[in-house]
Amino acid sequence: MSTPDAAAAPSSTPARAAVPEPTAGAPRRWNSLGPVGLVLAGGISVQFGGALAVSLMPRAGALGVVALRLVVAAVVLLLFCRPRLRGHSRTDWGTVIVFGITMAAMNGLFYQSVARIPLGPAVTLEVLGPLALSVLTSRRAINVVWAGLALAGVFLLGGGGFESLDPIGVAFALGAGAMWAGYIVFSARTGRRFPQADGLALALAVGAVLFLPLGIAESGAKLTDPVTIALGAAVAILSSVLPYTLELLALRRLPAATFAILMSLEPAVAAAAGFLVLDQALSAVQALAIALVIAASMGAVRTQVGQRKAKAEEGGTTSVGSAEYT
Are 227 and 68 in contact (CB under 8 A)? Predict the structure, then answer.
């Protein structure tokens, strides 16, 4: 995983002046959830979408599912947002292109993983990327403690080891985790350079263009089946359109370290989705693991809120974490 320059300051004052306010253009119904609520809603959506994608793979294959997901999500957001193509700098376009490549790679690697290993362990391994990012970007020692607690829960949820899993599936999941860390960084940068979800729509278009040939090569005419298209559209809405939009809005208002630790909740949500959709039961050890990652996430949120209050009392800026992932 390439280490993001998450602590870097903005390159120039004019660039920051062009950035929209964190809540500019965001629908009120989403803003009312708060940044943590946005992250949780996105996590629930993406994991249930992932469970649905697993059931779709026998029809369309792993690469075919990813292609359907990205294409449908791109079309929906492009039609909804109608992003403006002119007036953006070369840096803006570079950011959105890298964001699109990162999303395509993250999705492709993850679905290759769940084609070989169960959903729960795949997400458990994938979340190590955001956890590593939380440590790398943290400026407070307490965040390392929360990351360690979450990491303990993640490994406990995986049964304390992954020896029985397909090593290629494990490698794909770890690669997806590295891309997930990159996704967090470039989602934040894209959200600050483009209004509303315009940058996300453009990035999804980039990812769809890159991945569609791979999906066609693997699945061919299977992608034209009406049932497959309908299921792929459902996966796109649940796993891309809703969560990516919610997370982009949340990253305008949360520090990268806090957001990354909140991603520790994903294995817990994946376990619940596996139980409800794929009939995968939870053991007592898994329930304890879920409790650990929830405790870590709550601690991270409390730390972030306390830091915000302290800055407010000192008369500092309330734009918490703005330099952490710029």
Answer: no
